[in-house]
Write a structure and sequence with these properties.
The chain is of the alpha/beta class and 301 residues long. The protein has helices spanning 3-15, 18-25, 29-43, 59-83, 106-116, 129-137, 200-209, 225-233, 243-250, 282-300, and strands spanning 48-51, 54-57, 92-97, 121-126, 143-146, 156-171, 181-182, 192-195, 218-221, 239-242, 257-262, 267-275. It is 42% helix and 23% strand. Helix 7 links the parallel strand 8 and strand 9.
Length: 301
């Protein structure tokens, strides 16, 4: 039995879906299936009832789930405890980043940082917004760039680095593709697509329709921004993205998507986040302060 097998098992339970579980773990669906088959063979039981597209835990699976949750919790706890014994002057730091950070100069930031501090290696961990927050909370990382402080204002220290206007993105086959701007209220009957854990849409919906207890039809996907826009380009739905991100991706699929300005004002923010209860080591503090100053300089320029 391996931790990879246990992680695969827990991801399938979380999503009730092999494909979504494989995306969560950044492995192929065939790999995650092999993990489960090997685990079931070792245990001598079936962990899941598989009927068409429905996946349910067996009685044995329910029992194993208790063990798997405790095992992973113990594993994460011991990793945290072992970090206390590592040298604070470690030459590497791990930073969580969103896939969209490349549009805001993350590569240039890292290059400039390492010119000044060549002895510090920066490992970038590219994950979704909710996964970076999860990693911060369990001390897998101590610094991360996130696009929302929604529901996490109490336990995170946040430095706002970037502010960008949200725009509506549609396919060129969509009826809105003839418009240069639109009122958000006119999109209430449309199907939206959103990446899980990113709160642009949620906050806009809350501010626009929250008092009416109404939310438009929304498809949530566990994927990256490029996949989101590929779905939009096929006219499966529409989405909201920061202007700079949408404009950059438009270069790749220019013939298929349309950017429409919103007549309402909605912003997308990016924060550098850390746990309030967690003290950064020397190198992490150097990076935090450097990043804040770097983005402030970019704004002035």
């Amino acid at each position: 039995m391996t931790f990879e097998q246990i992680k695969s098992f827990l991801a399938i339970v979380k999503y009730n879906h092999f494909t979504l579980a494989s995306q969560e773990l950044y492995i192929s669906q065939s790999s995650i299936s092999k993990h489960i088959k090997s685990l079931e063979k070792e245990l001598g039981v079936e962990l899941f009832n598989r009927q068409h597209r429905n996946i349910r835990l067996t009685d044995a699976g329910e029992e194993f789930y208790k063990f798997a949750k405790k095992t992973m919790a113990d594993y994460e706890n011991i990793l945290y405890e072992m970090k206390k014994h590592t040298c604070e002057e470690s030459s590497s730091i791990s930073i969580g980043v969103l896939d969209t950070m490349v549009e805001y100069g993350i590569a240039s930031l890292i290059a400039d940082f390492q010119k000044q501090y060549p002895f510090i290696q920066v490992d970038l961990i590219e994950r979704s917004n909710h996964k970076i927050i999860e990693y911060l909370n369990n001390s897998t990382i101590n610094l991360g760039f996130i696009n929302s402080n929604y529901e996490h204002r109490g336990n995170l220290n946040l430095r706002k680095l970037i502010n960008d206007d949200l725009v509506l993105v549609t396919s060129k086959q969509h009826i809105f593709s003839s418009k240069s701007s639109i009122d958000i209220f006119d999109t209430s009957k449309e199907k939206y697509i959103c990446v899980n854990g990113d709160y642009y849409l949620h906050n806009v919906f809350l501010n626009t329709w929250g008092n009416l207890n109404y939310f438009p039809n929304t498809l949530y996907i566990d994927s990256q921004t490029k996949t989101l826009l590929a779905l939009v380009s096929e006219n499966i739905g529409i989405t909201l993205l920061p202007f700079k991100v949408a404009s950059s991706y438009k270069k790749d699929i220019d013939n298929n998507i349309h950017i429409c300005n919103l007549q309402n004002t909605f912003s997308a923010n990016i924060f550098l986040a850390q746990l309030k209860s967690k003290k950064l080591n020397k190198n992490e503090t150097l990076f935090r302060d450097f990043a804040i100053n770097w983005f402030n300089k970019v704004k002035k320029d």
